[in-house]
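Much of our argument rests on the idea that a fold can be written as discrete symbols. In the encoding step, the backbone of a single protein was reduced to a row of integers, each denoting a local shape. We regard such an encoding as a compact summary of how the chain folds. The record that follows shows the chain in one-letter code together with its fold in token form:
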Amino acid sequence: SSSSQCLPYWSRLVAVSISPVGVIALLLLAGVGLRLHQRRLAPSPRPLPWHAEAALGLLDLTPASLFLVFCFVPSVSAFIFRAWSCQAYTISPPGEALALVEYMRQDASVECGTSEHDSITLLAILLLLLWPFGSLALYTSLLAACYRPLQAKTANALTEATAFLHREYKRRWYWWEAVELARKLVLTGAVLLIPEERAFLRLVVATLICSCYAVGIAAVRPYKRIEDSVLAVAMSLVLLLFFLGANWTTVYLGIEERHPNSKDAEAILGLSSLDPIVDSLIVLVAVALLIFLIGAIVAARHIAKVPTIRLVSNKQPPELMIARGLTWHLFNSHIWSTGQDAAAVIKNELQLLLPGIKIFLDVDDLDDIGALEEYIARSQMILFFLSKGYFRSTNCLREVRSSLTMRKPLVLVQEAHPAKGGTLEELRAECPEDLQAGVFEANWRLAVWHRIEDFQLVSLKIIAEALLLRMPNHCRMSSLPLFVPGDASTQTLVFSKPVVLWASPANPGAAELARELARAFPGLTVSTVADVGSSASAHPSMALRGLDRPGKATHMLLYLNQTTWLEHDGERLAEQVNHGREDKL
């Protein structure tokens, strides 16, 4: 702009390069000030000295500062590299031969190659050490320091602070953002170090870099999400097409400039004007974008149908992390006589739903029965499969006591089958009194294990959520909604034709359950008339969802509980059930 041109380029260069440093410094000072303010308001005695609180304040906002540096790097670096960007002009002084002179594009008052320009480039070299090269070295070193914890899936403060650099990439290619940053710096600025008279060489270098990067990203597919990899390849190819178009344009204009009245350009390139180059480039870019967009959509839809547990928040599989020094995400504690089959199913299903999860199961991982406590210590969470006889097993009690002693997080799974489990009260009665509070009164997540597949999936999601909430990357959250593509919770269930569900007043609890069903399923109408069937008057005493006239029920709800079939209502209900069967409800 005209106002910016009023300032010499070196002033603008210093301002653009130093102002982000000032913003980041103010952010860190704000963190320190907030910590010290909180310390001042805290009652005495204060747990930490002021300098320790100040250090914690710096650490609090270090992740945000690193992210700001990452955002500033491309634009600031590009501005610094423009110190070498010069525009050539042909001048003709009176009585002298034609001469070529170059001036800075950013400041036309500065002639390139003069001492004034040399001082500007010297300043730019110093700033290059601070921004493009310094930031690239900073992030490369940070990623190198993250190697061990990321490969071991053990989160720490550093991996959390630098998560914006590696969270979108596969664990093997977690460092790819450093390559991406280097590519951006070269294409947006470093090519300007090539002299202006060799501008075509700039395009050649940029084209080669784009070609290598496109091939590399297509070969390694570093992103976790396949649609991200597809779009990254598409953007690389589009950029490559632009550079190829620029190459042809530069060659054409160079020939025309040197031989203005000849047809050399048409003879060499087969083009009489630039229009075919521009038109072909537009068509190729549009076709490439369309093809890759369709490919990304198809790939995303295919991946979305894979039956693995996903986060509701981003529709992606959760990242499994484990604390440093641990081996297993989950220890499966059970008794062989009544829980062996279910424990094996839980492990197998979780390994399918959460690829990469490590679960301890005795038949697979037990080497020494005397080392049960060690196995517990090396597990991140303990699952107690509560079945008949669990609390009478010596080894199960060892696992329970060691888990409580080590303060391990628990998830409880109750066997619902009457022959193998029972009610939670019956299972608690088997538990020694000194353990009951730690197991049953600590608000651990509880899943009921059924022998029906859809119900088992609900239980597995409860186990998975409890497990994920104890992982380092989710431990600050209170809930983590999950889903599995295609499961019942992701589908909208409706009736193909109107349904009138009759709930008998003689069946305690049936009306409340029927109303709950009506709220959940469109097209379901509830009737609670005094009687129904061929021998009944069918005048409704209550109607929901628009049932305001007598009508014959299509289904009868029979709700079984402890008060069903008792006394006079029981006899009446039995008669109604018989009438319903006669009417084929």
Q: What stands out?
A: The two ends are 81 Å apart (CA to CA).
